[in-house]
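Newbie here. two chains, one complex. Structure please?
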Amino acid sequence: MRFSPGLSASLAVLLSVLLPACEWMPGRPRKADEVVAPTAVMDFSKLFTQNCVGCHGAGGNISGSFALDDPTYLAVVPEEKLRAVITGGVPGSLMPPFSIAHGGMLTDDQITVLVQGISAWKPPAANSSALPPYSAPPGQAAAGAQVYETYLASLRKMAGDAMFADGFLANRAFLGLTSDQYLRTLILIGRPELGIPNFERAIPGQPLSNEQIADMVAWLISQRKNEFGQPLVPVPQ
Amino acid sequence: MIGIFRNVCLWVDDRLHVSKLFAATAGHHVPKSSGSWFYVLGSATLLCFMIQLVTGTLLAFVYVPSASQSYETLMYLSYEQPLGWFLRGLHYWGSNFMVGIMFLHMTQVFLFGAYKYPREITWISGCILMLLTLGLAFTGQVMRFDEDAYWGTGIGAAIAGRVPFLGAQLVQLMLGGPIINSDTLSRFFTLHVFILPGSVLALISLHLRMVLTKGINEYPKPGHIVRRETYDQEYAAIIKKEGVPFFPKAISKDLVAASIVIFSILFCAAVFGPKMPNGPADPTQIVTVPRPDFYFLWIFAVAALLPVYTETFLLLAGGPVIILILFALPFVNNTGEKSWRRRPVAVITVILIYVVLGILTYLGNASPWSPEMGAWTSATTEKSRVIGRSPLELQGLVLLQNKQCRNCHAIDGVGGHRGPDLMNIGTRLTESQLIRQIIQGGGNMPAYGNKLLPYEVEALTAYLVSLRPEGQPPARDSSVPAVPPKEQSHTSLPPKPHGES
C-alpha cells in the first residue's frame, strides 16, 4: 500500500486534530486541578494540608504541637470539642480560631469536613470509656507535685535529658503559653513521636489515673508566674 | 467545462490583476544569500499571528467579555466544549511562540544590521509591531479575568495613575471607571480583538511593503561597509547577479520553519495544555500569588526590586526611553559594518539584554520577595528540627508558625523566602542577637516588639537557638571568653531520644 504525499499530509492534520480529543492527552485540564476560591475547597486532605499541618503533624509529619492522628487523642477527644477548638481556637493559647465568624478563613462546612476527616482516623477498636476523660477540673496541686516528680523521673529514663534541660512542662514561659487543657492533653496523649509516651506508659507498669493527671495539671498551673505584668491566662487564686 | 473555468479565471485575473500582484510580491527577487535559516523568523512570527487570528476568532464564538460570565465561559471552554481546551491551548501557545519568535527576529535583524540604510522604516514599523504584540499579550492575559488578570490590571492602572497631571484620567480611560469591573474587561476585549489586531494588520502591510520596496537584507559579509551613496547600486547588482524569486526558491526554508512552528504549537497545546485561570478575580482574596505571563515577568521583577524613590521615574520614563532608543537606532547607526562578526558592541549588547532579561524573568517567577501567605499553617518542618526539643522549644516552633514567621522565613527551604532561611540560625546569631532582631527588626524585617509577649520571645528564641547542625554549638558572643569544652555540653544540640538514629 502506497501513501501519496497529499494523503500523508491529510492524515497528519487529521491526527493532530483528533488526538487531543482523547482523554489521555496530558494537556487536557482536569477538573480536579481547577483553582477554586479558598472557601470552596471541600477536600479534607487539601484542607488539612493547608490549615493544620504547619503546627500539628499527621501521617508521618511531626511539628511543634501534638499529632492529630494520635490514637489516644482521637480516642478521648469528643467530636464537638474538636469542632469548637477549630472554630473558635483556644483563648490564651497558640491555637487560633479558624472560623470566618471568629476571624479565620474557613467556612462552617469546611470545619465539618476537617472534624469528620480527623475523626475518621480514630482506630476502630478505640474504647474511650476505658480512658480518662478529655477534660476534667484540676485536682490537688500538693499531690500533683509528687506525681509530677515520679512522672518526670520516668520520662528522663526513656527520652534522655535533652528535652528536660529547661524544666520540661514546668518551664514558666511554657506554662504561660499553654492552656490548662493543653497541659492535660499533653500528659494524656504524650508525644510518642518524640519519645514521650502517653499516660498509660509514662510510668512503666503504673498507668496514670484520672486523679493523678488532674493533680499534676493543678500543680503545673500553680507554677505559672504572673511575670512581666502581662499574664496570658488568668492565674488561679 | 475546463474552457469555461479557464475563461472565468482569466476574467478574474484581468479585473483583479492577481497574477501581477503575485509576481510583484511572492515572486519578487531576493538575494540568494537570504535563503538562510536566520531569515525564517519574520515569516514564522507572521504565521503565529495568523494562528492567533484564527484561534482567537473561534474562541470569540464562546467567550463572553463580561465580569460575571467570562470566567464561566473559560471553564466551559476548558472542561465542557469538545476540543475547547485544545483551542485555548493553541491560542495560548500561539501567543507564547509569537512573542518568543518576534524577539528572536528582532535580535537577528539587529545583529545582521538590517535596520541600517535604507531600511529604517522597516525597523521602526517592526518596533511598533513589537509594542502592539506585547499589547496583545497583555490584554490577552486580562481576558482570563482571574486573579493574575485582576492584580495585573491593577498594577497597570497604578502605573498609569502615576503619570503627572493626567494620571487620574488615564486610569479612568483604562478601567472605564474608578475600579476594575465589567467595563474594564469590555475595554480590554475591544483592544484585544479589534483595535490591536487591526493595527497589527495595518503595520504588517507597511512592514511587508517596505520589505518589497527596499528588499530583504542580504546576508552580511564581514568587511562589507554600507554607504548611502553606493548601497542601492550594490544591492541592485546583487539581485541582478544572484537574485532568486522568493516563491518558489527562497520560500522553502520558510515552509519548513512554518511546519516546525505549527507542529510545536500543536505539541505544546496537546501536551502542556492551556494556561488555566488562577481562580476567579476576587479583590477580597488575599491568599493568592498573582503572576503575569512569562513575557512580563521581567517587568514584574523590576517593579518589585526598584528602590521606592526611583519607582515612579523609572516606570514612567523607562518605557519611553527604551522606545526612543529603538526608534533612533537606525538613524544613529545608519551606515557602516553590518556583520555581527565585526560589531562586538552589538553582540555584547544582545548578550547583556538576554542575560538581564533571563535573570529578571527567573526572579519574577520565583519572586522571593513575596511572602508565602499560607506557609504559617501549611509549611512542614523536618523531623530533625523537631525531635529532641523541649516543650518550650516546641512552643517556639508553634509560635514560628502562629506568628506567621514562616511566611517570610523558610526552614530547610520550606516556607517563604523573603527573609533568610532559618535552618542554621542558631549558629549565626546569639540568643541576645535573636531577641534584638525579633523585637527591633532590622534590614527588611519589621519590629515585633509590640506584637509578641515576653514569654513568646523566650520560646521563639529557645527554638531558634536549637536550629543548628548536630553537635555544633550555638553562636556565642565574641566579647565573652569561650567556655571550655567540658562546660559547654549543655549548649550543644540535645541528643535525640531513644529510637532515633
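Moderator note: Chain B is about 60% helix and 0% strand. Confidence is low (pLDDT under 50) at residues 488-501 of chain B. Thread marked as resolved.
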